[in-house]
Amino acid sequence: MRRGKREKATCVICSGEFMALSNLVKRGWGAETCSKKCGYLLASRVKQNKKPEVVCSGCGITFKIKKSLLSKKNWFCKSDCYRKNRAVLRASDNDIFLSRIDKNGPVVRSELGNCWIWTGGHNESGYGMFRTKSGKHERAHRYQWYISHGKAPSLHVLHKCDNPPCVRPDHLLEGNDLDNVTDCISKGRFISRDGKPLIRQG
């Protein structure tokens, strides 16, 4: 079997010299690496170079991501960078949330004043629903509690005004499971097994 002529070539990975087929060297490709190991490294570099570059929303450095992640609005180079800038992302969520409140709502109870009505989406029960930039869905009155108190509610958030879309801070209060059930019964919202609302007597 006749073999082609060979000549010296330099590996683009390890810079070592090796004997490659002359026609491959003249062609300019096919003789870039000296071994399979260097070939795999070259292939991974080529694949890495095809990834798009984005700027980290936290520290501002440039890094590469998968094409499937390009639809996101914020990119972070590492998890530590995301954790440090979570508050910034949350603040932008707060701006969006506050822009969807109508502070000239109806007066359900005169002693409480006007309700602040959530103008965004609602669920089947009439409670406002808010979608954060991270994609998480929150009930609007619970998110309002987070804004007002700086932390997520650990219990149920009840309405003094009995108006589900209301998000006025002083119309909201925390309550445990018993408080929640008692509140539902007193307002005729608790449905019994026969499908009728259960109303507390006396």
Question: What do these coordinates show?
Answer:
This protein has helices at 22-27, 36-49, 79-84, 86-98, 140-149, 177-186; strands spanning 6-10, 17-21, 53-55, 62-64, 101-102, 117-118, 121-122, 128-131, 137-139, 156-159, 172-175, 190-191, 197-198. The chain is α+β, with helices and mostly antiparallel strands. Residues 197-202 have low confidence and may be disordered.
Query: How many separate helices?
Result: 6
Number of domains: 3
SSE series: EEHHEEHHEEEEEHEEHEE
Structural class: alpha+beta
Helix content: 25-40%
Instruction: Kindly report how far apart the N and C termini lie.
Output: 106 Å
Provide the gyration radius in Å: 31 Å
- Write down the oligomeric state: single chain
Strand order of the largest sheet: 7-8-9
Instruction: Give the biggest sheet.
Output: 3 strands, antiparallel
Mean pLDDT: 78
Low-pLDDT parts are 197-202
Beta-strand share of residues: 15-25%
Q: Label the overall shape.
A: rod-shaped
Would you report the number of β strands? Answer: 13
